[in-house]
């Protein structure tokens, strides 16, 4: 299963580089898999083709998940994943557009991906470019005011070439999203602001594919219910795995689970 291979790559990268954000990566593996293998009109051989779809990982701290997916999709060799987040590496911890083909936007400072995606969607409309824009945000990231400005303008302009996906895992860096800034009824909030809104199991490949393929007349949001740390029993729904990196024993245990 490719999603399992992506998780294994992420685990190796995090362990080797001793870096953070493994939980944030594991919660979006199925979303990235569906986008890159079933939805996006892209070609790894011509990564800059004009009418391509563009994906923005707005929660740029989960860069390892995107690198692992891009490698599986053929954008670059899997060997390059060893150059993640190390001195003289090639793949930085937060996304840098100039690092490697396939990274559309530099992100890491939360709250910028959707406003940038909005601008790209407007530009595509003005240029009669058929490319669609997809933006993946964290649910904690939806605390940022800039996100809501973009939500309002996209709805006003009825940008049906723009899709947002919210990684709704209920956890952020230092607590539960509902305790940090409660955004009850997140789906209803987007709907009231004028978006075509859907709620799906963010680990269900068929459901994600069906909803992301739906053609609608407005901007679309998919609130994807996920589990932070998904796939490794001792990491699932555990806040500490936002920042912790697996030690040697934890690495072996996690690998065993993925291989089992
Ligand atoms: C503007 C900004 N403030 C703070 C941070 C530090 N930070 C990195 S990840 C994170 C938590 C984000 O939570 P969420 O959006 O729910 O993403 P998830 O943890 O699910 O990946 C924070 C606060 C940041 N990257 N950017």
CATH class descriptor? Alpha Beta
The end-to-end distance, rounded to whole angstroms, is 12 Å
Count of individual beta strands: 5
- Name the bound molecules: thiamine diphosphate
Tertiary shape: globular
- Spatial order of strands in the largest sheet: 1-2-3-5-4
Tell me the radius of gyration: 17 Å
Mean pLDDT across residues: 98
Strand content: 5-15%
Helix/sheet category: alpha/beta
Helix amount = 25-40%
**Strand and helix order:** HHHEHHEHEHHEHEH
Can you give keywords for this protein?
five-stranded parallel sheet; binds thiamine diphosphate; 11% strand; 260 residues; single chain
Layout of strands and helices, then pairs:
Blueprint: H1 2-17, H2 22-26, H3 29-39, E1 54-57, H4 63-73, H5 113-126, E2 133-138, H6 145-156, E3 162-168, H7 177-180, H8 186-192, E4 196-201, H9 205-213, E5 220-225, H10 248-259
Helix pairs in contact: 1-4, 1-10, 3-4, 3-9, 5-6
Bound molecules: thiamine diphosphate.
Explain what this protein looks like in three dimensions.
It comes from Fodinisporobacter ferrooxydans. Keywords: Membrane, Transmembrane, Transmembrane helix. The chain has 260 residues and is an alpha/beta fold. The protein has one domain (2-259): 3-Layer(aba) Sandwich (Rossmann fold). The chain has 10 helices and 5 strands; from the N terminus they run αααβααβαβααβαβα. The chain has helices at residues 2-17, 22-26, 29-39, 63-73, 113-126, 145-156, 177-180, 186-192, 205-213, 248-259; strands at residues 54-57, 133-138, 162-168, 196-201, 220-225. α6 (145-156) links the parallel β2 and β3. The model has no long low-confidence stretch (mean pLDDT 98). Bound molecules: thiamine diphosphate. Thiamine diphosphate is lined by residues 24, 59, 61-62, 108-111, 138-141, 167, 169, 171-173, 177, 228, 242.
């Amino acid at each position: 299963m490719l999603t399992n291979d992506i998780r294994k790559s992420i685990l190796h990268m995090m362990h080797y580089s001793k870096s953070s954000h493994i939980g944030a990566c594991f919660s979006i593996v199925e979303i990235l898999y569906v986008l890159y293998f079933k939805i996006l009109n892209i070609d790894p051989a011509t990564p800059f083709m004009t009418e391509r779809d563009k994906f923005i990982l707005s929660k740029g701290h989960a860069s390892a998940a995107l690198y692992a997916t891009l490698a599986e999709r053929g954008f670059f060799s899997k060997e390059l994943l060893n150059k993640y987040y190390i001195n003289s590496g090639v793949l930085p911890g937060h996304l840098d557009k100039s690092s490697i083909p396939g990274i559309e936007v530099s992100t890491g400072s939360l709250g910028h991906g959707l406003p940038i995606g909005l601008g790209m969607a407007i530009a595509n409309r003005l240029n009669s470019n058929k490319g669609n824009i997809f933006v993946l945000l964290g649910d904690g990231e939806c605390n940022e005011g800039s996100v809501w400005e973009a939500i309002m303008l996209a709805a006003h302009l009825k940008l049906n070439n723009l899709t947002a996906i919210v990684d709704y895992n209920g956890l952020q860096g230092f607590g539960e999203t509902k305790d940090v800034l409660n955004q009850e009824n997140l789906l209803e909030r987007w709907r009231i602001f004028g978006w075509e809104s859907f709620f799906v199991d963010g680990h269900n490949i068929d459901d994600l594919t069906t909803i992301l393929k739906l053609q609608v007349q407005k901007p679309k949001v998919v609130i994807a219910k996920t589990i932070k740390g998904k796939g490794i029993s001792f990491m699932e729904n555990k806040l500490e795995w936002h920042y912790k990196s697996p030690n040697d024993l934890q690495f072996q245990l996690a690998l065993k689970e993925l291989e089992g």
